[in-house]
Amino acid sequence: MRLDKYLKVSRLIKRRTLAKEASEADRVLVNGKPAKPSKDINVDDIITIVFGKRIVEVKVTRLIESTKKEDALLMYELISEKEKTGE
After folding, report:
1. Is the pLDDT of residue 58 over 60?
2. Where would you tag: which of 11, 13, 14, 57 has the fewest CB atoms within 10 A of its CB?
3. CA dihedral 78, 47, 56, 77 (to 10 degrees)
4. Residue ranges per domain, the chain?
């Protein structure tokens, strides 16, 4: 599954266009490396997303083509969520 679609379906990012923009701006890392929107995501990949001052890190647990809101949480496991330190 493509990274931008995964972020939208898992509801980590609300819209696919926003997921695409975040990826293109190098604010999304897959296994520690900047990833383009078309990057293929696999189970056990680690995704790090920078949301302004917040950094969220999740582990991919499932790939589901479309989900209900309550099932979206089954697609990932939260590893950490922290505030970005000064730059």
Report:
1. yes
2. 14
3. -10
4. 3-83
- pTM for the complete prediction? 0.88
Among all chains, which residue has been given the structure tokens 């890190």?
Answer: 57
Indicate the length of the chain as a whole number.
Answer: 87
User: In whole angstroms, what separates CA 3 from the centre of its chain?
Assistant: 7
Give Cα 82 to chain centroid, integer Å: 15
State the Cα–Cα distance between residues 51 and 55, nearest whole angstrom.
6
Q: Give Cα 30 to chain centroid, integer Å.
A: 8
pLDDT of 27 higher than 90: yes
Architecture of domain 3-83: Roll (3.10)
